[in-house]
Structure formats: C-alpha cells, structure tokens
Amino acid sequence: MLRPDFLGFGVQFHRCLAHSLLISGFGGFFMDSNQKIDVAVIGAGIAGLWACKKLRRAGFGVALIDKSRGLGGRMATRRAGKLQFDHGAQFFTASKPAFLGLVSELVTDDLCAKWFADRYVAIPRMSAIGRGLLDSEEGLYLNQQVRRIHREASGWFIEFEQSGHDIIGNGYITNIVIAVPAPQAIDIIGAEYSGFEKLKSVQYAPCWTLMLALEKPLQSDDVYMEFPDGHALRSISQNSNKPCRGEVAGLHTIVVHASQDWSIQNLEHDKETVQDALLSIVSDIFNFQTPPHYISAHRWRFAEVTQAAKVPFLWDSKIGLGACGDWCTGPRIELAFDSGNALANEIIADRL
Length: 352
Known about the structure:
The chain has 352 residues and is α/β, with parallel strands linked by helices. It contains 8 helices and 17 strands. The chain has a 6-stranded mixed beta sheet with strand order 7-2-1-10-17-16. Strand 16 (314-316) and strand 17 (321-323) form a beta hairpin. The relative contact order is 0.20.
C-alpha cells in the first residue's frame, strides 16, 4: 500500500542547450573536468533533495543524480496530454519545527497549500515541489541510473547502467550520499563496504495505482476516502479537488490506491489486467454509467516501508559514504526529510 503522504517533483529542462545537456548526461558541464566533487547525492526524492540543498548552503560542491526524468521520487505526477494525476504521494503533513519551517517557506513561495485538515499538497502538482528544493540546475544529472560505486585512490567512482552515462568529476568524489529505497541502496553499495547491514532489515510493501478521468465527479463529499482493512482499496483521491487543479476539458481526475494485500496478490499481473480489475471495483462502489475517458495503472514496487531500519541515517566517516531516506525511521515525507537533514548535518559537522 502506498501511504498518502509518500513521496516524489517534475522539472522540464528544454529551455536552452544547457538544460538539454542536463538530461542527456552532461549536467555538470559548468564544472572543470578535473574538479573534485565534495558530495555526490544519488537519489532525488525528498531526502536526497534536502540533503543536496543543505550541503550546498554550507558551501559543498554537490552533484545530484537520479534515474528518473524529474525530481521528487514518489511525490510524482503523471501527465497525459492536459490531464495530470498525483499518482504517488497524495498529501503530506508537518509536525516538527524543521519541516514546518520548510512547509511555511513553500506556502509563501506558492509551491504548496493546504488541501484539507492538516494535509498539504504541492501546487500546481505534487511533482512541482522540486523547484523549491533545487537551488541550481548545475551538477544535476537526470535519466542516469547508478549500478555500483567504487572507492579508488583519487576518490569515489560511480558506475552507471547505461554506456556513455557519466558525470564530470567522476573518480574524484570525496563523499557519496545514497538516498534511494533500501533494496536499491544495497545493490549500489554491494558487499564491499561494511557498516550498512541495517539496510537488509528494511521491508517494503508494493502498491498498484489506478488513474481515471471521468465526465462527472464522484458522488461523494469526501475529497479523500480511506477504506477499512480487508478491502481491496486503500484510498481514493479526487485529484481535481486539490488546490490549483480543477477539471480539464470537462473531465474530473481521480487516483485510486489498492490495498497492500491486493497489491501483493496482483503484483506481477500485467497493467491492463490490473486496470480492468481496479476499475471494476471502483465502478461497483460508485455505479459508473459511462466508461472513463482515460485510464492507466502504475505499479510502485517500493511504495511503503513496513519495517524501518530504526536509525536516522547511516554514515561511515572514514570512507565518506552515507545513506538516508524514509526507510530509516518510517513511511512519511517528513521522516524522509528528517533523515536527509540529519545526514547533511552530520557531514557538515564532520567535514567542515
């Protein structure tokens, strides 16, 4: 099941040649090829983005790498023509001073707003919050999936999945922060570096998500509906009712998250089968009279942490390797922020 406050941001980089180079793998072209990178952050969800921002504020040269086209991890937005669906995190909450301060800044900058009760959403889409956390596009590398990391005499070297992908300064990286789901972090770190065994204790649940565009809004006064344990569904969000969304071309958008058990049982089914099954369930609840104008499904393999590592972060000062994320203490956006913030503070105290 995917927690409603579970992560992802989208930024388009086509405004000039420099932005095109960012996407194609030359995001650090402003840097001298022999320049050392103080910190390379792998993973641009909330934890990675905030760690990057805080380290840059402290004067570190930081490269930020992510396998996706956009920023924010599971604070994600799917676009289909003019339609958009927040198909990852539905909202987030804030309770501690540090994150409350960030949320206040984002509200002031018109990057987030209250949806209902104490639930916040990014505006005009969940993925837009990345603009508020990215100070500079310099040193940003998107669409680059990391395979492994290796410690060499000159510094860290990052090996990428796709031939031709690289970052300027590779091999001269002083520190690495890994801010991806625990199973992916294990693969990247490998067995060569000890001290990261707690990653193996982390467990996740998957989630299937259904996106629909309908002629009429759901016959419910609730903009967000949760279902009891044992039901096939976890939640339904009336996406069009979120601030700065609204209907598009007369269509209303909704996002459906299947329950943990249902998602596990149907994890390996093809997308079309899952779409039809979830549509049937939702149709039975609301008695749809016409088919949806748009339908799509998305599978989140690492949707929600069900067993955390119970540490704020992992950090090996001797080799300059750390890891952070929601998997440290629990499945909330604020806790992912806390983890990235704590690791950044540790590196600043250790290295400055």
